[in-house]
Amino acid sequence: MSADDTPDKSGQPGRPEEPEKPERSEEPEHGGSSGEPEKEQAEKEPRESEPQEPEAGAPGPAESGPERPEPGPVPPKGAASGTTPLTGRQRLMSGLWPPRLTRAQLTVAVLLCVLGLGLAIQVRSTSDNTALRGARQEDLVRILDELDNRTKRLEDEKRRLESQRSELESSSNQAAEARKQTAQKEEQLGVLAGTVAAEGPGIELTVSDSKGAVEADKLLDTIQELRAAGAEAIQINDVRVVAGTYFSGSAGKVEIDGKKVSQPYKFKVIGKPQDLEPALNIPGGVVQTLEKEQASVSVSRSEKIIVDALRPAKRPDYARSSSQ
User: Which domains does the chain have, with CATH numbers?
Assistant: First the structure.
């Protein structure tokens, strides 16, 4: 028989003994309320929620438990946790865009834009956009020679007029000298006015406009270029060109002083050939302009050009000489 099978005091075998229940203490009859002993007992017992100080020699929480990870570097502002940190360029772009402009900054930006636009317009207006920019060296040399020739002609005219004045002042018979110079001046003015015929060295310019694309203003530009080069007498077909000559009409139907002229347009020009021909052939000049209009241009020099188309001499109706 085992020890478990030993009979208890009641005579029943194998039944374990029940633990005795603690007797309930009686409440004191006097000495305060009934809740004070319980309160004192609760104060003596340590609270479960309050951490207890470790005893001397006992392992602390740092020793007994696993070590806590140290705090890592703080991620940059704006970067989400677990993402790659922003680079310097990305932070710069995020700071620049979208722009955060104040009223003063916007005003300064508008003023700078207006200033830049004004400078660009000024530079463009003052830049040299003529055809001389892409001209060859020999063309530039020819243009310089033409300018030198114009300067020389003006100086010769100045010396001639000074010589005439000196002759008038030093002549014993000033009246006869004055009449002589007056006749010479009348002849020169007759050539310029187209009332007398003229001959001399010069060039012949022929413009063939088979497609009728040459406008009247192109012919006027040709006259102006020839006059600037020193032309003294000009004739187009059978019309004498003078100071009051005008061009009208459309392409292929050009009229000079109200008279229709047919193509080819033949120019007879009296002047210095060495000055007239280069003036027409400069880069961007008359010849190139007419060739762009699909016209053919030919220039030839001659030692004898005859300008015989005349204009009637008209006496002015109201203007009179101030010497009378």
Answer: 149-307 (3.30.70.1880)
